[in-house]
Amino acid sequence: MPPVDQILLQTLMKEQRNSVPSLSDFLFFCYISVTSFLHFTFAIMGHFLCAAFSFYYKGGALLTSPSGPGYHIMLPFITTFKSVQTTLQTDEVKNVPCGTSGGVMIYIDRIEVVNKLAPYAVYDIVKNYTADYDKTLIFNKIHHELNQFCSAHTLQEVYIELFDQIDENLKLALQKDLNVMAPGLTIQAVRVTKPKIPEAIRRNFELMEAEKTKLLIAAQKQKVVEKEAETDRKKALIEAEKAAQVARIHYQQKIMEKETEKRISEIEDAAFLAREKAKADAEYYTARKLADSNKLKLTPEYLELMKYQAIATNSKLYFGDSIPNVFLDSCAFQQAELRTAQETSLSSQEVPDTSAESHLKPKESTG
């Protein structure tokens, strides 16, 4: 029974000895009795939540068999228990001091470590590190790793450049040690807030960030100007290439036109040459055929016939020795001249004393 209830009960008993009990005293006595009974009942019963394991300490010694969720009976003042959660839980480490390599002391306001304990490893971890294992395995390790990290880097690196790596580095370092010291305890995530730095340094950082922002703005403006100049240059280059391509196309077109004209001229010349050659061949063939026909046609008999036809159609006749000379290189006239000479010799033999003229005067024909 609790000490307060015992004092109240003793006081009530003394008053009952000294006075006659009344109805109110009886009711007060009943209330004290019921309260004491309930306190005693809950003292021998333990209520454990779901997703948690409870370990009993009997006389300070840890029992090997944990209890699951539900109501369990235990002996008060002799048996105590500790509940260990086996689901995801978040442990917070607040106001962690950290000294940089430059000697500046900074404070990290809050570090959250999300971890999970496997059910099979609960007994070993509680046995080795008690039910408050997170203080030994997580909190102390967080302080150590942060101090190691800060002492190896400057304020600029911790506050700005390498701040995004602190979470992952802490998680890897914690998990590496837990795999050796407490298998079954897994670190899911680590979240670190921005460090608190001295006010003067913070203002300097703000000024530095403002100047850096101005520098970035100036650099961006310069990039924009360079980009515009590059765009203009590319535009001019494209226009020049376009003009060159157009000129090249016109030049090629003119060359093609000249080549076409040359080809047409060559074709016309070839056609003219072919026509002239065909014409010359035709004339040559005609002349050759005419010569062949004349060769076959101009026989001595035919020439004799032509001579007689010419003499017959002639309007004037000449007699004498010079008449055959008119027909030069004519075999027919040579034969006629030979026959005329023979006839003359014969006539001279028959009429030797002829004094008449040897030449006949030609008659003029009226036709």
Describe this structure in words.
Keywords: Cholesterol metabolism, Endoplasmic reticulum, Glycoprotein, Lipid metabolism, Lipid-binding, Membrane, Signal-anchor, Steroid metabolism, Sterol metabolism, Transmembrane, Transmembrane helix. It is a single chain. By secondary structure, the chain is of the alpha+beta class. It has 4 domains: 82 residues, no CATH class; 112 residues, Band 7 domain (Tetrahydropterin Synthase, Chain A, 2-Layer Sandwich), CATH 3.30.479; 83 residues; 51 residues, no CATH class. Strands 6, 7, 8 and 9 form a 4-stranded antiparallel beta sheet that branches. Strands 3-2-5 form a 3-stranded antiparallel beta sheet. Strand 6 and strand 7 form a beta hairpin. Helix 1 packs antiparallel against helix 2. 9% of the residues are buried.
Quickly describe the structure.
With 367 residues, this protein is an alpha+beta fold. It is built from 9 helices and 9 strands.
How are the secondary structure elements laid out?
Blueprint: H1 3-18, H2 23-43, E1 45-48, E2 52-58, E3 61-62, E4 70-73, E5 79-85, E6 89-99, E7 105-117, H3 122-129, H4 133-151, H5 155-161, H6 163-181, E8 185-192, E9 195-196, H7 199-297, H8 300-313, H9 331-350
Antiparallel strand pairs: 1-4, 2-3, 2-5, 6-7, 7-8, 7-9
Beta-strand segment tally: 9
Query: What's the CATH H-level homologous superfamily of the largest domain?
Result: Band 7 domain
Which regions contain 5 or more consecutive residues with pLDDT less than 50?
37-51, 327-332, 348-367
Q: What summary fits the major beta sheet?
A: 4 strands, antiparallel
Terminal-residue CA separation: 195 Å
Which whole number gives the mean pLDDT? 75
Q: Give the number of domains.
A: 4
